[in-house]
Amino acid sequence: MLHILFLLPLLLSTSHASVNDFCVADLKGPDTPAGYLCKPPTKVTTRDFVYSGLSVEGNTSNLINAAVTPAFVGQFPGLNGLGLSAARLDLAPGGVIPLHTHPGASELLIVKQGLITAGFIASDNSVYVKTLSKGEIFILPQGLLHFQVAYGKRKASAFAVFSSPNPGLQILDFALFASNFPSPLVSQTTFLDPEQVKKLKSVLGGSG
Questions:
Q1: Is 16 annotated as a binding residue?
Q2: Which of 11, 97, 124, 162 lies 20 to 30 Å from 51, alpha-carbon distance?
């Protein structure tokens, strides 16, 4: 009986522990390196843990014939603080997700449809490439340059799972040729011909 009396206050004191089980993002507040502030528990609903955005095929009518639909914390507040997020990749025939990095996360690529050639470049410049079919998965380590290309003449799609609610993204081509990075410095640091740099900037909308 004494043990029961001792445990009862402890059970009562932890009966509201679920408020610490998650931290649904308050997107009206600042996004800090530690994540968003938590929405008050009284305002959290089941809808905060459901996201339907990846059910819709992305628009691939663009320069790269591909689309990436993110489900990061900014789109899916329930991910805040949980260490994961996702995205959908849609590639038309000839579609390509250019060389890019996710500074804040590793990526697990899961092919849903078609064939996708994926690969990454390690820090010692070793290249790892594989053409993946439906159901196959490929790991892309955090921070390394990587890419995805539709293989063959069919469209393809995949889901990506990241080890962060906000993995970040930097596309190499856009960083070089869609920015105001001065063209002489682009040429000097990449060994590209100045005319080629000018051409690429005109295609991607860069300046400088």
A1: no
A2: 97
